[in-house]
Amino acid sequence: MINAEITGWGKCMPPNVLSNHDLEQIVDTTDEWITTRTGIKERRISHVDTSEMAYVAGMRALSAAGKTPEDIDLLIVATCSGDSIIPSTASIVQKKLGASGAAAMDLNSACSGFVYSMVVASNMIKGGANKTALLIGAEKLHYVTDYTDRATCILFGDGAGAVVMEATEEPHGVMATDLGNDGTIYDLLQVPKDGTMGEPGQRDPQMQAISMQGQGVFKQAVTGMAESATISMGKAGVGLEDVDLLIPHQANVRIIDATARRLGLDDSKVFVNIHSYGNTSGATIPVALTEALEQGRIQPGSTVVFAAFGAGMSWGSMVYKWGSRVDPLATPEIDLPPTDQTTMDILSANFDFFGMPEKLA
Ligand code: COA
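^ thats the input. predicted complex w/ coenzyme A below
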């Protein structure tokens, strides 16, 4: 029977850092408040477009798999902050990669986007439509972040991660999946007028930034991730004792802790890197997977559970049995173009559009 397995992985985090101490200079907040309420210490702010981070992460994943861009027949970019709506960001990434033989599409289910992409790609591979897919989660969330709003600007960051998925007949790979969405509560988290909800030509800063009902999202997140992971584990016939690592979406360390408690999973089996990057939406899962492999947290034969939730409100999970290779086949000499800009230089465009934060005025 054909299954889908992950054969390559990589990440691309832009170099500019926005720390909690930097945010103390911008809004009325403290490192202590952000750390205790979210677990976040710093996040990255990109000087390039989403597609450029996606390209670098994608090339790194392809190298790790021993593949070239010509080898892929499917390219999915999970993003809710892509370069453009038309064309898809995946089309721009395809051009940068030179992946001329691939079908290409964006997949937007916000922070669940990467798990959604893995489910879609693995089913296309299992069904025989595709053999080798490159899946990239990439976000430039600072673009839709209002740095006068202390409730949201502390949470989000930029970055990209990617995996290569290939067909296999070996007894490992995707074991079970679950996806869901509840559109009746879509307004818990939104960029209200980022699309056709706005009037043509209208530029309304208040409506073009992320707005969020934090506590409502928090509750949905814990329930969504824990229930979905339980469903996938049930389908896979996997008990808690069989799980080696949970890789959850990184939105808030308290959400991650509450999810693990609800599942009854020990902290030592949960991967957390939110302190370094904040919430990078579609990118958190592939970035976390890459770092889990780099840190030896995944071993041959490990059972890994992925779980995510996001705007929509969407959720999804996957139980995955790792194969024998936990090291990349190669690491390419590729990186983002360097920049002389400071983090504040990059954010100045946000200040101009959304409003100058009081502390900087
Ligand atoms: N610094 C200091 N104080 C802050 C603050 C900040 N950055 N942001 C909010 N506050 C204040 C509030 O104004 C409020 O003050 P008040 O009591 O005087 O009104 C107080 O802190 C508590 O606010 P509240 O919203 O109840 O805090 P919380 O414990 O729910 O934490 C979030 C807020 C946003 C961290 C939390 O709700 C959360 O993480 N929600 C999920 C968000 C998420 O994951 N989004 C992405 C989904 S993919």
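The mean pLDDT is 96.
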